[in-house]
Design goal:
It contains 34 helices and four strands. The protein is mainly α. A hairpin with a 6-residue loop joins strand 2 and strand 3. The protein is elongated. About 50% of the residues are buried.
Length: about 850
């Protein structure tokens, strides 16, 4: 009966068959009895209501009863039909030993295939081949790869009979199943396997349509999404976007009220795609992932679907753990709650791999937790990592084991209490263990990260010159992978660590060399940052690198390099500060220029996204394909970035033909000393004074007309806090809040500033014979009228005539032209220290 309530119809059929069996008995009407038992078994197998396991057990009993009459030698075709049906019942049985049930199913299908042959019963043979393939596909024991190869062979055999034009629905079913086998195949070329799976799913979708076979269409869309999600090569963002589209398509059919389990599974899968999406707004992607996981958890419950519930809880924890916005501590507490929930289901004896994964994730959350007792948090993290390592072993799960060893090393490195040397030695042991698995040629990103971590541990060890050499060797190794053009932030981190080590040892030349590598990486990172907020953060985190580099150069008496770095740090935000519209009256940018600038912006975004793709798979630790993904991704992204940079160069050349100034501002080159010298060539008796305040001192770099090497005058002890913050409190703040007070205390403030900057000594030692000065101040010094600074014998507030020096103050000519800024370089920019607006 094709219409009506399916369950009610089958219940009526069951009643009819059972009534017949009260008359037909195996000893009086064996053939009729056997046929009815088979039909009764089919009714129970298809019954959609009631206890599914009990229904299938009834079906199995019926089929077995049938086979006591139908024998292979007397009724081979009926015997084969029943064997196939019995195999289906065992395959679908949700209770008992899953492997044993599937082995029973396999035996039944293989029995049927001794009768059904492709030349005598092709359709039945193909059907049973398909069913046998599915039993091998889901067999949880034995050699997984071998089982899947058997499944593939069965499906491909079925497809020699099932053709799209003669049996389209069956052909589509087998194509989908074949796709599943290729998608799960753990051996061979992972990309090739998944591409075969994708081709199979797409083939099935040429038959299964949302209006004619909506459930099958939705299932295949979900499967296709999984294949795209796992694809290890190609454009990761594009692959995941295709997966997202597939999952969303499936969800147009699978609804929470009509197909809750499938709907929840697809919501979980969609959440995973958003979790790993490497481009776009990271916070927005993670919020979408969280929404998907929380939706799935409205169906997946610990009492009805505990394993699925635990999986989604773990995934939700990962999303909260990675969320870059909001209250970091609160996010991590939510992540911890999710992981701990998952661990109420996943146990080391029943789900060891999942349990270990969640223990590792829980350890990461405790390690990152910014609130509470830091020691206690790290000790909890250590306990979690150690727990994971009771399951993950180097011979059975080497990549996961290495990852956890690295994480454990970080926890020991950060532990603030206990024996510091002992903790660091524990960390070193962990990093070295990880490096027995992570190799430069197979897992270069993890290898480089662990080399950097190992270098930091050796560097922090309290004693031993040999340790410092080991640290340097580790940093040097890491930088063979972390190139600034591909991994600017990672390169910055390692070069900074190396430079700091050398700086603290007084090795000024080595320190300067590594700081210069770090500076290149800073500027590469800033060019690639997708937001102004991120660019500001990079500056804030790295401002001291410039300062240390300047100090190292001064200590080496390499004043030209020191001055170049000073001007480099002034110019580091030139592109950010000069809005292109300001270069045109009323902001009216010519349309061709605007189009070129938009193209450059688009290319910069693409380059940043390409770099981001390399580092966003850190949680994806599937043993298969990982090293292939890393190596191929690094190569592909490097090539892609090179092509994008070439495109930028072409556009900049084209832009230069329209507006050379704008073009140069979009690709600012670090200033060199040779750029300064022409500024003085027409001004005999002139000099440039470039001020720069570090944490400790204020340096004044002096370049005189006719000289090619600058000198440096240092106001010792007049660093950021002692000079610049003093200026903010005594000059900038009163100007804003109380101008009367500001005017009243101005003479005393200027006199004190003159003393702090040692103006008399500066004039006596460096400024004799000069009649013009070009000043490049720094930070709050921009707000100071240098012409009014009192010097020996001078009146601090004497009227100044335009172009005429004030008697006794060689600084007075600064007023000539208003600001004295003849230099093309920007005045000093704070970065993380923002002064008040100048009066």
């Amino acid at each position: 009966m094709p219409t009506g309530d399916r369950a009610a119809n089958l219940q009526l059929a069951i009643a009819c068959y059972e009534a017949a069996l009260t008359v037909w008995k195996p000893d009086t009407a064996p053939l009729d009895w056997a046929a009815t038992q088979n039909n009764l078994g089919s009714a129970y197998s298809n019954l959609p209501t009631g206890d599914r396991a009990a229904n299938l057990q009834q079906a199995i009993d019926c089929y077995k009863a049938t086979l006591t009459v139908w024998k292979q030698d007397t009724a081979p075709l009926y015997w084969a039909i029943t064997q196939n049906n019995l195999g289906n019942a065992y395959s679908d049985l949700p209770t008992g030993d899953r492997a044993a049930n599937l082995q029973q199913a396999i035996a039944c299908y293989e029995a049927a295939l001794t009768v059904w042959k492709p030349d005598t019963a092709p359709l039945d043979w193909a059907m049973t081949q398909n069913n046998l393939g599915s039993a091998y596909l889901y067999l949880p024991t034995g050699d997984r790869a071998a089982n899947l190869q058997l499944a593939i062979a069965c499906y491909e055999a079925a497809l020699t009979v099932r053709k799209r034009d003669t049996a389209p629905l069956q052909w589509a079913m087998t194509q989908n199943n074949l796709g599943n086998a290729y998608k799960n195949l753990p051996t061979g070329d992972r990309t090739a396997n998944l591409q075969l799976a994708i081709n199979c799913y797409k083939a099935a979708l040429t038959v299964w349509k949302p209006d004619t076979a909506p459930l099958d269409w939705a299932m295949t869309q979900n499967n296709l999404g999984l294949a795209y999600s796992d694809l290890p090569t190609g454009d990761r963002t594009a692959n995941l976007q295709l997966a997202i589209n597939c999952y969303k398509a499936a969800l147009t059919v699978w609804k929470q009220d009509t197909a809750p389990l499938q709907w929840a599974a697809t919501q979980n899968n969609l959440g995973n795609a958003y979790l790993y999406l490497p481009t776009g707004d990271r916070a927005a992607n993670l919020q979408l992932a969280i929404a998907c996981y929380e939706a799935a958890l409205t169906v997946r419950k610990p009492d009805t679907a505990p394993l699925d519930w635990a999986m989604t809880q773990n995934n939700l924890g990962s999303a909260y753990s990675d969320l870059p916005t909001g209250d970091r501590a609160a996010n991590l507490q939510l992540a911890i709650a999710c992981y701990e929930a998952a661990l109420t289901v996943w146990k080391p004896d029943t789900a060891p791999l999942d349990w270990a994964m969640t223990q590792n994730n829980l350890g990461l959350a405790y390690s990152d937790l910014p609130t509470g007792d830091r020691t206690a948090n790290l000790q909890l993290a250590i306990n979690c990592y150690k727990a994971a390592l009771t399951v993950w072993k180097p011979d059975t799960a080497p990549l996961d084991w290495a990852m956890t060893q690295n994480n454990l090393g970080l926890a020991y490195s950060d532990l603030p209490t206990g024996d510091r040397a002992a903790n660091l030695q524990q960390a070193i042991d962990c990093y070295e263990a990880a490096l027995t698995v992570w190799k430069q040629d197979t897992a270069p990103l993890q290898w480089a990260a662990t080399q950097n971590n190992l270098g930091s541990a050796y560097s922090d060890l309290p004693t031993g010159a040999a340790n410092l050499q080991l640290a340097i060797a580790c940093y040097e190794a890491a930088l063979t992978v972390w190139k600034q053009e591909l991994f600017p932030l990672e390169c910055l981190q390692t070069a900074r660590n190396w430079a700091n080590l050398e700086f603290n040892q007084g090795h000024w030349q080595e320190a300067l060399q590594q700081y210069q590598v770090a500076i290149e990486a800073i500027e590469q990172s800033r060019r690639g940052a997708l937001s102004e907020e991120r660019r500001q953060q990079i500056v804030k985190e790295s401002i001291y690198i410039y300062e240390n580099a300047i100090q190292a150069a001064i200590n080496l008496k390499d004043i030209p390099t020191a001055l170049e770095i000073v001007e480099r740090v002034r110019a580091k935000r030139l592109v950010d500060l000069l809005a292109t519209a300001d270069l045109y009256q009323n902001g009216d940018i010519p349309e061709p220029v605007r189009q070129y600038l938009q193209k450059l912006n688009d290319l910069d975004d693409q380059i940043a996204q390409k770099r981001g793709e390399l580092g966003n798979d850190s949680r994806e630790t599937k043993p298969d394909g990982m090293k292939t993904r890393q190596l191929r991704a690094a190569t592909e992204v490097s090539e892609d970035i090179a092509q994008l940079e070439q495109q930028k160069a072409v556009i900049l050349d084209q832009l230069s033909n329209l507006d050379e100034v704008v073009a140069k501002l979009r690709q600012v080159q670090p200033p060199k000393l040779a750029d300064f010298i022409p500024l003085l060539q027409d001004s005999p008796g002139a000099a440039i004074l470039s001020f720069y305040t570090t944490d400790d001192d204020t340096h004044i770099f002096i370049l005189r007309h006719g000289e090619t090497v600058p000198t440096c005058f240092t106001c010792q002890g007049q660093g950021y806090k002692t000079l610049q913050l003093w200026l903010r409190e005594t000059w900038a703040t009163p100007y804003i809040s109380n101008k009367t007070q500001w005017v009243a205390q101005m003479p005393a403030t200027l006199a004190e500033l003159s003393r702090r900057l040692e103006i008399d000594r500066l004039i006596a030692e460096q400024l004799q014979g000069l009649n013009e000065l070009i000043l490049i101040p720094h930070l709050f010094l921009h707000q100071i009228p240098f012409a009014a600074l009192p010097v020996s014998g001078g009146s601090p507030l004497a009227p100044l005539k335009r172009g005429e020096p004030e008697s006794g103050s060689p600084l007075a000519p600064l007023q000539k032209g208003g600001t004295g800024l003849k230099s093309p370089f920007l005045r000093g920019i704070m970065g993380d220290r923002t002064p008040a607006d100048p009066p």
